[in-house]
Amino acid sequence: MAWRILVFYIGSLSVIIAVVPWTSEALKSPFAAVLQAAAIPGAATAITLIAVVALLSALNANLYGASRMIYSLAQRQEAPRWLGRTSARKVPVTAVLASVAFGFVAAVLELLYPNRVLPMLLNIVGATCLLVWTISLLAQLILRARADRAGTPLPFRMGGYPWLTVLALAILALIFVLLIATPDTRAQFISMATLTAAIAVISEIARRVRRAR
Question: What is the mean pLDDT of residues 200-212?
């Protein structure tokens, strides 16, 4: 995983930064801009087509993940029961259709309100990923300590515990501070905090309703 990140993410970004000025308008399609700078005939068009195929593949993977998450929530009674229905082949068709419908609605809203809906969704997702990583790190701190106290054998023990986890949490805390302090990203943090609070409140209300039943 570390080598994959170094080569495909940091490596590709390093090449782009070294070839294309960071103020260039061509960075709207960074890989195509690099190939245009290399003067390879037809390469820019080819990489654009490859990017489209990669995006469609990512869309397919995210639809799969979103539908299975919705199905899992329905099975735990944390989402409407009808979202947990499956076909004869055990496929959560209703959850898949709900995920596709959300995508179509988002696309239509983006067409009606250009440069409003998509940036908002991207901001919420980006900040929410940071929150998920933070929760994962806190859970790792708590569960690892609990397992060590109980003497539970762990098949995979992370090296550098707990200092690497604490370091990662400190880096994430710094990122959150920068999000709040920067006017351009403050809305991103507020959107994430609002969405998280809304989900927490709704989940607590649903939990109490289930307990009352």
Answer: 86
Q: What is the pLDDT of residues 22-51, one digit of tens each?
A: 788 877 778 778 877 777 777 778 877 888
Q: What's the rounded Cα separation, in Å, for the pair 40 and 44? A: 8
CA angle 155/157/160 to nearest 5° reads 170
User: pTM, whole model, 2 decimals?
Assistant: 0.66
Which amino acid appears at position 7 of this protein?
A: V
Backbone region of residue 163 per phi and psi (left: phi > 0; alpha: psi in -120 to 50; beta: other values): alpha
- Helix H, strand E, coil C: the string for 43-106 is HHHHHHHHHHHHHHHHHHHHHHHHHHHHHHHHHCCCCCHHHHCCCCCCCCHHHHHHHHHHHHHH
Give the Cα separation of 131 and 193 in Å (integer): 9
Whether the Cβ atoms of residue 110 and residue 117 lie closer than 8 Å to each other:
yes
